[in-house]
Request: fold
Amino acid sequence: MNRMQTARRFMTRFGTAAGLLAYARLATAKRLHGSGDHLDLRIPVSARPVRVRAHTADIDVFWQVFVAGEYDIPVDFVPEVIVDAGAHVGYASLYFAHRFPQARIIAIEPAPANAELLRHNLNGNARVRIVESALWSSAATLMIANPGADSWSFQVRENAGTAPGVSTVTMPEILRQVGRIDILKLDVEGAELELLTGDLEWLRQVRMLIVELHERYAPGCTARLNEVMQRYGFEHVLEQGENVVFARQDAGVGALE
Reply:
């Protein structure tokens, strides 16, 4: 895609003036290299400027969520509870909050630097609750296994006791608080395989699953997901961008709202 085509994508999503400004500022963010450099972008989905760390994976995630529209997934029911697991710096949570203004959102992120920016980007949004933990199959103490990786690629593993601990939260714990999850978005860098082990009865309280699979980190996760989805009454709906979408057979999936 050339520069003109890219700029047009921004203008289509945000309007001419806001789109051109966001395009120009995101291009500037790619050129900056200083540690701690960031830019704030005003876009229609957020009441306050959205922060992007310069020369980081934030730029790619911003593109995927807000410009490429990877979460523009057909839904014809009204979601009341959305869980954004692997919330990174909050772009998907902002998108869901704008698209589904009646929904409560739980944004889960284990990496401290990401969680700090997540809190900044979602500050003032009373419908979003931030949980600085890793979504896991059981209570445990974890660690960031690859702290030098890009910010969207952090993986967690059991803590051997030599690194700062990362707390966990489980799906049953979340469901005890909310009762039912209408949309569960999983982008957890391979931990999806861990989540699909043990007692999976919590899946009966999930209406739609949007998951990015990481076969390179967790070999076998694709086959395991397909088997579990069939067992618990989910249908494969579509694939969009890097996401695979499943919905329970009684969930309404149709035209975009």
Q: What stands out?
A: Residues 252-257 have pLDDT under 50 and may be disordered. The helical segments are 3-14, 16-31, 58-67, 91-99, 112-122, 171-178, 191-195, 221-231. The radius of gyration is 18 Å.
